[in-house]
Design brief:
Elements: E1 25-29, E2 34-39, E3 42-46, H1 48-55, H2 67-70, H3 73-82, E4 93-99, E5 106-114, E6 117-124, H4 134-146, H5 151-166, E7 170-176, E8 182-189, E9 200-201, H6 208-216, E10 219-222, E11 230-232, H7 255-263, E12 268-276, E13 279-288, H8 296-339, H9 349-357, E14 364-369, E15 372-377, H10 382-392, E16 401-403, H11 406-409, E17 422-427, E18 435-440, E19 445-449, E20 458-460, E21 463-465, E22 475-479, H12 488-509, H13 516-546, H14 555-578, E23 584-585, H15 586-598, E24 605-609, E25 612-614, H16 616-635, E26 645-652, E27 658-665, H17 678-691, E28 694-700, E29 703-710, E30 715-717, E31 740-744, H18 748-760, E32 765-769, H19 772-781, E33 784-790, H20 799-807, E34 811-816, E35 833-835, H21 840-854
Parallel strand pairs: 24-26, 31-32, 31-33, 33-34, 34-35
Antiparallel strand pairs: 1-11, 2-3, 2-6, 4-5, 5-6, 7-8, 7-13, 8-9, 10-12, 12-13, 14-15, 14-18, 16-17, 17-18, 19-22, 20-21, 23-25, 25-30, 26-27, 27-29, 28-29
Helix pairs in contact: 4-5, 4-8, 5-8, 8-9, 8-12, 12-13, 14-15, 14-16, 15-16, 16-17, 19-20
């Protein structure tokens, strides 16, 4: 895409006499949006047919017209002001519910740069200007995802949560495999929809150029696959280049993709990119059976949810990597102890084989060292291995080598294909080349394809090209000649084991002076390898230290900052919820933050003075302030070295005002920052702005000193912690509920939690409903054994449902968030009453009591 904006004249030139060459954009936009391309304040392209319908103005003759003539000067001024955020951002600036023409019609607006052009996109605001807080729901949904520690459970919960957030019929988590095919690894659907879980889709379904767009533009939506699309005029610029529409939210997709969706019975679709380390890991692929539109505000909440999911995915994979590293380290220690007295690596072969099997699964293992070959399990013969060793000598030195299809790279492997189809090689020397080799047998992998991946090109309605598959009946493809693929975690473990074996070799070669020259070479190799590992460790430490750097200048750094601050808030939130969102100890807040971030340095932070309790509002604010103080001290202040300490004192004045002081001692000299980053802004302004208190920072040579005043409305004298509540004897799972259950609850998150609780208690099926009418229809249509009924449903109560349950002998429990019954339960049947918030344990306890009463 050329950066040239076209030959649009300067404002001083008379447009009526200007011989302009037309610019045209070979693209189309979807029916719900209007697109205008602007360069140097001139409109140079638009989708005239749709823009006229959406904006209610004639847009046909606007090419070459100043932008200010198309909209009012106030509107242009406002849009220009919003464009300021694009100065350092390659994304979209978004405006919600803006009265574009001053006539009450509201529009959502997106603006982005493409070269020297500005692209404006306008969407009518269908829902009016109602205030919503979709981001609050996102936080609750992500909390559900965080509960899980496996990829399967985490992605299933994410699909379920995204479906709840959007209301769309089907949400799939689609993961890209190493061969660029895609697998549906999680799914949430409406009842009676065909399941796609486990299906594999060919790489051609999402071409490389489409994947590149998914990295740049993380959310794509098609509200109506049957709707008309509209061309952008004119088509090409004077240099014959089209306009780059890759970031346009209203850009229409290809007719082939629309046909593909229609063949699947899809009426609307949405895809959201899952990114890992800047690369496309997979997609949230969403389908709806009918036309379905989501406004900008909802889409922004979806993007936030998926961004936070990306953090959770990274955390899960990092935890798994650390666990694998720990296993490899433990194996290293054991092997060094067990092999140190052996005469050679070949003599130690059984010990090595047993230890490796604890970390990496294999069907056969062999060692080739100093011309000696020894093997066990499913392996080539010694003669067959000599030819294989010559092939391995051509691979990269000082690196592991792995393949799950050895026959494709070494044709002679056909001679022992019945015993080994893939291998993982650990070089344990430079010259001569010695190896530990792990083998895996062929596995006939049954892959469930969503259609034939080798379908030939046939004539279709859009010309001679690959026609989208008319049938999605799964068929089986048996892949032969390959073993189970070596996982990335196994490869990392193999690399660590390779260095361990190098250490082993060094120890063993010390036995003979005749091999001293070789021992010296191997020692040099070991030093190089250890130096490489140390550098990696130092790089990791550097990354951990810099991840919270104020004023981060990259998306990754910002994400790391955001992640730390979110965790600080999460810890505060956990403390608040433990106290039922009541007053919470400031000392507990400090202790939690210090121990979470400083670990072994926690004892260097001393807290003294009066005991103070904070209101929920003040507690959340102080959580961020304390977090920033602790992290800054660890990076730049007294906690940055081994000598410094921090003294925190708290004092409650007679008028109820609280004073908090932070004093750093014996640390490196500190200087006032040359610019105010976000973290410093939090420390200096949060308490004055949110709590109407004061904050003063002094950067002294002896260390940072900070003083805060917290108004009396937000603080009180600390109270003695109440006695721990008596443990609920009834444990989760000890009460069983047989059959189907119904949850009547108008809060989506609570309904999802209640469904999980009842499923764990044994319910075969749990039906969540939010309205009395839905509950009554369900009771007529299904055989329900148990009902959990929220008493107050906003504008109605569950009285009619409770009465019907009583008449039919259905066991039920009433749930209420009110402190006392009052008149609220008047007229309700005599069912057990459960107080919100409730857990599996409290529900089990009340059911157990009810069982005892019935006995």
């Amino acid at each position: 895409m050329s950066d040239a904006p076209s030959q649009v004249p300067d404002q001083a030139v008379d447009l009526t006499t200007c011989d302009r060459e037309p610019i045209h954009i070979p693209g189309r936009i979807q029916h719900y949006g209007c697109l205008l391309a602007v360069s140097s304040d001139w409109i140079i392209a638009h989708a005239s047919e749709n823009c006229g319908a959406i904006l209610g103005v004639e847009a046909t003759d606007t090419i070459g017209v100043p932008f200010v003539d198309f909209f009012s000067r106030d509107v242009v001024h406002y849009l220009r002001s919003r464009l300021q955020i694009l100065a350092r951002d390659t994304g979209n600036a978004r405006i919600y519910a803006y009265d574009l023409f001053g006539d009450g019609r509201l529009f959502d607006i997106s603006v982005h740069n493409t070269g020297r052009f500005l692209i404006f996109e306008f969407e009518p605001r269908l829902g009016g200007a109602e205030m919503r807080d979709d981001t609050a729901i996102v936080q609750a949904l992500i909390a559900r995802v965080q509960r899980h520690s496996t990829l399967e459970k985490m992605t299933t919960e994410a699909a379920r949560s995204l479906k709840a957030l959007t209301g769309i019929d089907r949400v799939m988590v689609y993961r890209f495999e190493p061969d660029d095919t895609g697998t549906v690894i999680a799914e949430a659907t409406e009842p009676n929809m065909e399941a796609y879980l486990g299906l594999r889709y060919p790489a051609s379904d999402i071409p490389k150029q489409a994947r590149a767009l998914y990295v740049r533009n993380v959310l794509r939506i098609i509200p109506d696959v049957q709707a008309e699309t509209f061309a952008i005029h004119p088509t090409l610029g004077p240099e014959g280049q089209p306009l780059d529409l890759s970031l346009a939210v209203t850009r229409a997709v290809s007719p082939i993709h629309l046909e593909y969706l229609r063949n699947m019975g899809v009426g609307a679709s949405m895809s959201v990119s899952i990114l890992r380390k800047g690369k496309l890991w997979g997609l949230f692929a969403c389908h709806h059976r009918t036309a379905f539109h989501m406004d900008f505000q909802k889409r922004s909440a979806i993007e936030l949810f998926v961004q936070l999911f990306n953090y959770e995915l990274a955390r899960l994979e990092t935890d798994q990597e650390l666990e694998e590293v720990n296993k490899a380290r433990d194996m290293h220690d054991r092997m060094m102890q067990q092999i140190s007295d052996e005469r050679s690596l070949v003599d130690s072969f059984d010990t090595v084989a047993d230890e490796l099997e604890q970390v990496i699964a294999y069907d056969g293992i062999a060692v080739y060292s100093n011309g000696f070959y020894r093997a066990r399990g499913s392996t080539p013969t010694a003669e067959e291995f000599l030819g294989l060793a010559r092939f391995l000598n051509t691979t990269q030195t000082a690196q592991i080598y792995a393949t799950d299809r050895l026959g494709d790279r070494y044709p002679a492997a056909e001679d022992f294909a019945d015993r080994a189809a893939g291998l993982l090689v650990l070089p344990i020397s430079r010259t001569p080349r010695d190896y530990i080799v792990l083998f895996r047998r062929e596995v006939a992998q049954s892959v469930t394809w969503a259609g034939n991946p080798d379908k030939p090109v046939t004539p279709g309605p859009n010309g001679l090209r690959l026609t989208p598959r008319k049938s999605f009946d799964a068929w089986r493809e048996v892949v032969r000649g390959s073993c189970v693929a070596w996982r990335s975690g196994e490869l990392r473990a193999a690399e660590a084991l390779r260095v361990t074996l190098l250490e082993v070799v060094l120890k063993l070669t010390d036995e003979s002076s005749a091999n001293s020259r070789r021992a010296q070479e191997q020692q040099e190799l070991l030093i190089a390898e250890l130096n490489h590992r140390v550098r990696n460790i130092l790089n990791l430490i550097r990354g951990l230290v810099s991840q919270s750097r104020a004023g981060a200048d990259s998306i990754l750094a910002y994400g790391q900052l955001l992640d730390a601050r979110i965790h600080a808030l999460a810890r505060a939130h956990d403390q608040l919820t433990e106290r039922s969102w009541n007053w919470v100890s400031l000392s507990d807040l400090i202790d939690n933050e210090v121990r979470a971030f400083l670990a072994g340095k926690a004892d260097r932070v001393k807290v003294s003075g009066d005991k103070l309790d904070l209101s929920p509002t003040a507690f959340t604010t102080l959580a961020l302030v304390i977090h920033e103080l602790v992290t800054n001290s660890a990076k730049y202040g007294a906690l940055n070295d081994s000598r410094g300490s921090v003294e925190i004192s708290m004092r409650l004045a007679a008028d109820g005002t609280a004073y908090l002081s932070w004093r750093e001692r014996n640390g490196p000299p500190v200087q006032a920052p040359t610019r105010r980053g976000f973290g410093t802004t939090i420390i200096e302004r949060s308490i004055p702005f949110e709590l109407k208190g004061t904050a003063e920072l002094h950067y002294k040579a002896s260390g940072l000193e900070a003083d805060f005043m917290i108004p009396a409305i937000h603080v009180q004298a600390g109270t003695v912690d109440p006695a721990a509540p008596k443990e609920v004897v009834q444990k989760k799972g000890s009460v069983r509920i047989e059959g189907a259950a119904m949850v009547l609850e108008d809060n989506m998150i609570i309904a999802m939690d209640a469904s999980d609780i009842l499923s764990d208690m044994g319910c075969s099926t749990v039906h969540p409903v939010s309205r009395v009418s839905e509950a009554l229809r369900l009771l007529e249509a299904e055989e329900i054994a148990f009902a959990l009924l929220d008493v107050n449903l906003g504008d109605e109560t569950s009285l009619d449902v409770a009465r019907l349950c009583k008449d039919r002998g259905i066991r039920a429990v009433l749930a209420t968030g009110y402190g006392g019954n009052g008149d609220l339960l008047d007229g309700f049947p005599d069912f057990p009453v459960l107080r919100k918030p409730y857990t599996a344990e409290t529900l089990a306890a009340i059911l157990s009591e009810d069982n005892a009463d019935q006995d």
